[in-house]
Design a protein that fits this description.
Helix content is 70%, strand content 0%. The chain is mainly α. It has one domain. The radius of gyration is 62 Å and the shape is rod-shaped.
Length: 210
């Protein structure tokens, strides 16, 4: 608390004492413990620098790892794309195989058709020759040339003479007509006439056949 009309401080003395105190404090650096502290501080500073350097390297490595991850992701994307393309190619190959299989089936069917046509043509040639031969038959008991079916195979139990043809029952007549791809309708007499005409047996007088 200020005292009125009291003594005033000596600022010159204060300045002198503070200057002397500063000089003495500066001399504290000469104390061994303080020097060791300075060395520790220097070491800590160096360690901090090393730590910062390591941190910088770790940051750089993290950046490289990020870059590598990006490249790996890109490669995975390319691999996925290639797998998709391979899958598409496999699908196309399977489709082509299916088409080839279908074509083979069609070719096989055509071959069967051609073979059947060839057999049919050959059968018709043989039957034409048989008809020509049978046109010369004028006696019911004379052997006639048998016909073959459309497949070229001999017709089972084809009659050997014109009279044997006229003696066939309906069941045998129907079988022969089916082998020749002729109608099986009508009376027995109509069926016999149909087979006889197809066989070329046309020059036997009616009175010589029963």
């Amino acid at each position: 608390m200020a005292v009125p009309n009291g003594p005033l401080p000596d600022f010159a003395a204060i300045r002198s004492h503070l200057t002397e105190a500063g000089d003495q404090i500066a001399l504290c650096a000469n104390i061994p413990g303080v020097q060791g502290g300075n060395q520790i501080a220097a070491l800590l500073g160096a360690m901090n620098e090393n730590i910062q350097h390591v941190r910088d390297e770790v940051g750089a490595l993290r950046g490289e790892v990020g870059t590598l991850r990006g490249e790996v992701g890109a490669l995975r994307g390319e691999v996925g794309t290639l797998r998709g393309e391979v899958g598409a190619l496999r699908g196309e190959v399977e489709a082509l195989r299916g088409e080839v299989g279908a074509l083979r089936g069609e070719v096989g069917n055509l071959r069967v058709q051609v073979e059947n046509m060839h057999r049919g043509v050959q059968a018709e040639k043989r039957n034409s020759i048989a008809r020509l031969i049978n046109t010369r038959v004028t006696n019911a008991g004379v052997p006639i040339e048998p016909l073959v079916g459309e497949d070229g195979d001999p017709i089972p139990e084809f009659p050997g003479t014109a009279q044997a043809l006229r003696d066939l029952d309906d069941q045998k007549l129907d079988q022969i007509l089916q082998h020749l791809s002729l109608r099986t309708t009508g009376t027995s007499a109509a069926k016999k006439d149909r087979v006889q005409m197809h066989a070329g047996v046309i020059n036997i007088p009616q009175g010589r056949l029963r």
